[in-house]
């Protein structure tokens, strides 16, 4: 059997390692200037300025959280009003059935609860987590990204991606152990 | 190893460039913190764990006895219907508040020194709230009807009263528990990924792998993550204030002299932070010794926490003074009597302990020598814990024992079940704390790495910088 019949492995992209946050940031900026768009950086902690270097738009998360909070507050308030006025009207302390003042503490708490849950689930959703497997996890040393290593990847779906050329490009940026990653 | 890592950044005045440390620092830090979880169990741990577990099991026994026999086994009866149960409930909820203060409020105030203690304090919050939660569940008497607290019509098609502070409390504490858990977990995801990537045994790889949710430190992920963390901090800050405010409403909205005061919400919030900081110190001082974390949790950290303790002690002392003044100034017979009774009545000894422990002893913290002494801090922090327990006891039991009509006065004497339950819940707290120290990263690695001195010339930051940007943008809008 000749090697030609073997399917050519699909590529995920190219990975290069950098010394520290400064060189990683610089490499990302230069890769973006060179026209690459499907970039990603990997670091043990958030590197300031990286969002801009990767060309990311402002996160939509705050709007999602605002929405979550308003839904929570609205549900709590209308729910309690419905119960107090329609479902189970009962006079407590001579106050009107529809008084909203005593309902505010619970409205606030439910608002915070919904907003916080939205913040967490929304972050997972935007980040595509949980995702227990990823092509990069099979890379030797990639695990050190959560320890002390800094990596930059350019993905194969980038329109400017050309395996040999991209590898060479990352090497010129000062990337160490530049390698192709199989999908 | 004992060279301080974080110290140069404790306050901005120091020359940050003077201490440029090499790359290995990241790795050294990972080794130090993950090592605690990965090394064989230290010899003291099983003994400490089994002791705590044995004590915790007495809480289980006391609760089982209570539930199978009836609330009569506790010492409370008319007129003292709330005693050890609510005292301990408020005590534990209060302790939790320091954790949220450290993790959320100090975060928004850009106090970077918090990064080496916030994970620990958040864990303490979570376990304290769990301990607090034991009491409302069992004190209802017939626990199988505890679901009457939920916002659903009960067996008689009757809805709970949404206008009652007791129901507000259910919402406040359960929201607080949930949000604290989320905040703690989200903060821990990058560090769980560190543990996953270092794991050598299969069970560790699987368990930490699942808990880390596939986190890989991607720049695109950090982008949303930082915003999520900032938003959670912003949400937790008003939440923590609301929780103890609502707890104080349980008392303030009643008509019992000594409870019915408007100062309660701020008084309770200050007291909660005070007691919580004391508990952080009580736990952190031995933990940093046992795990060799003195380069991360430095003497300067202890000094700062001691200052917060002193400040909150003064607030609490002020509240005690105002309470007395208002009682005198009100010219209200019952209000005046309530405080006369508190100072000179049958529980005067409790009031004396409270004032000594909460106001008198903490004044020693004015002295640099006392703040610099680990032992002095440890002793004072324990005294504050005791004092704050007595504060709640004196307010709750003291006020109920003697309200309006002398013919309806009574005394409260705790029974052995009360005492066993209380001791047992402390056991539960320490059991959970020991499990946390053993199996989870006790210092927020990714946060500490981000403020390591090496990066300072290059301006690396956590969300703090994001917050700065948002703030400066806001200022621009205001000025234009």
In terms of DSSP E residues, the strand content of chain B is under 5%
CATH topology of chain B: Formate dehydrogenase/DMSO reductase fold
Could you spell the SSE succession of chain A in H and E letters? EHEHHHEHE
Mean pLDDT metric of chain A: 85
Q: How many helices of chain B? A: 16
Largest interface: chains, residues each: A-B, 68 and 71 residues
Low-confidence stretches of chain B: 1-24, 455-468
| SS content category of chain A | alpha+beta
Principal-axes geometry of chain A comes out as elongated
Radius of gyration of chain B: 24 Å
Helix content of chain A: 40-55%
The chain-level mean pLDDT of chain B equals 84
**Which runs of chain A of at least 5 residues are low in confidence (pLDDT < 50)?**
none
Largest sheet of chain A: 4 strands, antiparallel
Q: Let me know the CATH homologous superfamily of chain B.
A: Formate dehydrogenase/DMSO reductase domain
Coarse shape of chain B: globular
């Amino acid at each position: 059997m000749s090697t030609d019949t073997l399917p050519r492995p699909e590529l995920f992209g190219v990975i290069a390692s950098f010394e520290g946050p400064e060189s990683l940031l610089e490499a990302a900026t230069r890769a973006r200037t060179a026209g690459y768009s499907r970039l990603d950086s990997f670091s043990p902690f958030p590197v300031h300025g990286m969002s801009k270097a990767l060309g990311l738009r402002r996160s939509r998360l705050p709007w999602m959280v605002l929405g979550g909070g308003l839904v929570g507050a609205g549900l709590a308030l209308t729910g309690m009003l419905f119960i107090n006025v329609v479902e189970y009207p009962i006079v407590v302390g001579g106050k009107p059935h529809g008084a909203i003042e005593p309902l505010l503490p619970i409205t606030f708490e439910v608002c915070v609860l919904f907003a916080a849950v939205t913040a967490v689930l929304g972050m997972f959703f935007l980040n595509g987590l949980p995702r227990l497997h990823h092509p990069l996890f099979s890379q030797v040393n990639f695990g050190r990204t959560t320890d002390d290593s800094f990596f930059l990847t350019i993905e194969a779906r980038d329109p400017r991606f050309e395996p040999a050329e991209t590898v060479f490009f990352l090497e010129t940026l000062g990337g160490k152990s530049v390698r192709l990653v199989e999908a | 190893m004992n060279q301080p890592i974080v110290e140069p950044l404790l306050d901005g005045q120091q020359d940050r460039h003077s201490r440029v440390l090499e790359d290995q620092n990241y790795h050294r830090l990972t080794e130090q913190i993950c090592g605690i979880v990965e090394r064989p169990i230290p010899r003291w741990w099983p003994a400490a764990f089994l002791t705590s577990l044995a004590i915790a099991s007495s809480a289980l026994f006391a609760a089982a006895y209570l539930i199978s026999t009836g609330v009569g086994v506790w010492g409370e009866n008319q007129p003292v219907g709330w005693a050890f149960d609510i005292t301990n409930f408020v005590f534990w909820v209060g302790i939790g508040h320091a954790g949220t203060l450290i993790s959320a409020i100090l975060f928004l105030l850009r106090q970077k020194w918090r990064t080496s203690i916030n994970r620990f304090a958040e864990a303490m919050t979570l376990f304290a709230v769990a301990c607090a939660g034991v009491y409302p569940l069992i004190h209802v008497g017939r626990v199988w009807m505890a679901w009457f607290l939920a916002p659903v019509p009960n067996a008689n098609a009757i809805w709970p009263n949404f206008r009652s502070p007791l129901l507000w409390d259910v919402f406040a504490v359960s929201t607080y528990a949930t949000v604290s858990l989320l905040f703690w977990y989200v903060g821990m995801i990058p560090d769980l990924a560190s543990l996953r990537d270092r794991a050598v045994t299969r069970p560790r790889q699987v368990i930490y792998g699942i808990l880390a949710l596939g986190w890989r430190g991607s720049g695109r992920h950090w982008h949303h993550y930082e915003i999520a963390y900032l938003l959670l901090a912003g949400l937790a800050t008003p939440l923590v204030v609301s929780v103890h405010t609502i707890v104080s409403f349980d008392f303030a909205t009643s008509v019992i002299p000594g409870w019915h005061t408007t100062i309660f919400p701020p008084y309770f919030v200050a007291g909660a932070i005070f007691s919580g900081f004391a508990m952080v110190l009580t736990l952190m001082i031995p933990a940093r010794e046992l795990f060799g974390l003195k380069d991360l949790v430095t003497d300067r950290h202890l000094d700062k926490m001691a200052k917060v303790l002193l400040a909150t002690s003064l607030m609490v002392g002020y509240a005690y003074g105002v309470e007395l003044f208002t009682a005198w100034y009100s010219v209200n017979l019952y209000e005046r009597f309530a405080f006369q009774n508190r100072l000179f009545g049958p529980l005067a000894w409790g009031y004396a302990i409270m004032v000594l422990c909460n106001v008198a002893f903490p004044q020693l913290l004015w002295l640099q020598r006392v703040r610099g002494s680990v032992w002095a801090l440890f002793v004072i922090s324990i005294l504050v814990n005791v004092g704050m327990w007595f504060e709640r006891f004196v307010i709750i039991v003291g006020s109920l024992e003697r309200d309006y009509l002398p013919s309806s006065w009574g005394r409260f004497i705790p029974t052995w079940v009360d005492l066993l339950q209380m001791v047992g819940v402390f056991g539960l707290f320490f059991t959970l704390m020991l499990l946390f120290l053993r199996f989870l990263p006790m210092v927020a690695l990714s946060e500490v790495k981000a403020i390591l001195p090496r990066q300072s010339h290059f301006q690396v930051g956590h969300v703090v910088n994001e917050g700065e940007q948002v703030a400066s943008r806001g200022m621009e809008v205001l000025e234009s």
